[in-house]
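Question (not urgent): is this output format expected?
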Amino acid sequence: MKSSKIALTGLLIILLPVLSMAQALKDGKLTLNEDGSRYLKFTIVNQTWLRNTQFNEGSTIFGYAKKNGWDIGIRRFRMQLYGQLTDRVFIYTQLGENNFNGIQDRKFGFFVHDAIGEYAVVKNKFSLGGGLTAWSGLARFASPAVGSILGVDAPLYQQSTNDVTDQFLRKLAVYAKGKLGKFDYRVVLSDPMAFQKASSYSAVISPDIANFSSKPPKFQWNGYFQWQFLDQESDLTPYMTGTYLGKKKVFNIGAGFVYQPKAMWTMADNKVDTVETNMVQLSLDAFYDAPVSEDGQAISAYASVGHFDFGKNYIRNIAAMNPTNGTTMKNVINGSGNGFPGYGTGNVIYAQVGYKLKDNLIGKTTLMPYVSIQHANYERLNQGMNYWDFGVNWLLNGHTSKLTLAYQNRPIFLTDAKGKGEFSNRKGSTIIQYQVFFN
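Got this back:
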């Protein structure tokens, strides 16, 4: 908490002389010169969840067994401040917290997400930057713009090292980005954070299951490249829009990668030496978002195929704002609460589609139903992993004010005699999210 106050105080000290030079507040921007080409902009988003969850077998809350339950939490709270300080100098920072519910440490979560400085070497075509940044590789939603995602969550598996060797997907990195006609690119060199500081850290080296190496890491390379056929998307920040609600006509095809030499290890057959392997991730995707009629109807669709090599039998769970914190059943691969095996060595197909109904459907509001699926064939699991998320957005005022009813359904896997995951059953979560977004 003290560090957060120091950070905010420092930010205000930095801003005071800039604010004194400000010309006017226009279109949500604090302009710093007469033509508005130099500016500062502030945004804020809050997403609150009310949720009922069928917990994974063996789940406990502080030692008390629970089969299901309700919880209320702040899934995301973010504040952005960014601006064009000169014709070539851009600065960006984001602060906030994630996954704050009743079982978390109090006053725990407010931290710096991004801290970036950037210089345009050739305006629009080639910029260099660095810092703590979400500029990343692999796929479109490796860096999602959370205020505009289609449902209540982006495809989180694309944030492939989330909080393992990065800080909630952000990396200490230098990057190059820009646009050459319809070609949009980003290339990133990052310095992975110490695995020993991750909540998932384990010093155990297994001969059967790979894990991240505890040795000082080598640099990681990321890249993502798109051909933007129709309307051009902004690359001002790394975050990519989930849906434009029919305000743009976008069709992109993209490809990306993540590569880190000797990132993973297993124990050799002699039970003494270690075998180090490279981490390699590859992805192809396509995004289409466009109006379909003059009365405001619009479609949003995204599909991705990916190959993930974390080493032999690697698996890791996703458990967004987990409502439990313990388990009595170590053979449940999913872990406790709402966890499911979202990351792993293998191949993944993801697809989502949403349809915005006509404007003024319910008074001045409208609806946008959606559905998504993550299908994965992971080496550790005997069967395919299918994770469903579907629901409806009630667009009270676009993304500025929206209420979402979602249902998420996940498979449960139990460890068999060979250490593999055997499908057992399925469980679900029902979520009501209210989002407020000042942009």
